[in-house]
Amino acid sequence: MKRFVHVLFLWFTMTALGVAQSDLQPAAIVRLTKSEPITVKQYRTEVERMEKQAGRTLSVEERRQVLDVMINEKLALQAAERDKISVGDNEINQQLQEIRSALVQNTGRQPTDAEFALALRNETGLEMPAFRDQLRRQMITQKYLMSKKQSLFTAVKIPSDADILNTYTLYKTQFVRPETVRFSMIQVPFGADAKAKARELADRLIREIGSNPSKFDEAVVRGQVPNSGYQAGDGGYLPRNPEALRVVGQDFLNTAFSLKQGEVSKLLEGARGYQIIKITETYTQKALELDDVFQLGTSMTVKAYIGNTMLQERQQAVIEQATQELVTELRTGNPFQVFENNLKW
Prior knowledge:
Elements: H1 2-24, E1 26-30, E2 36-39, H2 40-54, H3 60-82, H4 89-107, H5 113-124, H6 128-148, H7 150-154, H8 161-170, E3 176-177, E4 180-189, H9 195-209, H10 213-223, E5 231-239, H11 242-248, H12 250-258, E6 268-269, E7 273-283, E8 286-287, H13 302-331, E9 336-338
Helix pairs in contact: 2-3, 3-6, 8-13, 11-12
């Protein structure tokens, strides 16, 4: 029995050692300026991350594309290091702050460090240190691309007024603002175990407010005080279209568009809480002209939107061209080796 246990333990140990050695085997070696491996473990980790994001298993061809991207990145990083192109911590921190600012616009408040790290992990599958490292690599690669293909980027032309007018004329029927309202909202959130208590508070609020807009505004102010038990503030713009219907539900949508500006709603029940709304602005459906505001709540006109979109499309086309040219140049002479037998697991 002791001998059997010893043999079994030895088998487990050797199996684990074999897996570890397999993980350390190279999937590829990049040697543009120095010999640098991409291990099987690194390759498999990246494939698994991409599969998690895609929600499916990648095909053999797609897995190979992942390895090609990893090889291209290492080639670019080695070339950038050779040409003394780098990215400092301040640049990375600035980029992180821009990402954080975008999150503030979506949530309406400044996230904590823990909330920001969680949002990044949910979006990318990476913890903060790994995300910073990935961001650094991407920024170095972009800086190197810009330095080597600057002539392509500087040749991008800003869309002329004639270009914008032609595009507007072609897609004019799509530039229609649907009937829209802006509303202020009081919401009493509830969970599965606290719905009755939330309903008591919601009933008390609707009794106090009734249909009185001034009472509603007073309740909104109280709701912005910590520990008020409910949330209150500007609800934003609500268009009457299928996308909004899927978000807010039929009862909410019907109620919002049955009210006139300044009117207060009945008590509504949403998926996450009880709600009372007041309409603050109303807009009829409108075919937008070039000088009209494209999106309510911003100052961007239809003309500016079309111009920005066209410019981004031209820049993206140049990025793809520049990237393909650079990859071809870096791969010339086959400065890498792929170990096909190590790519299967």
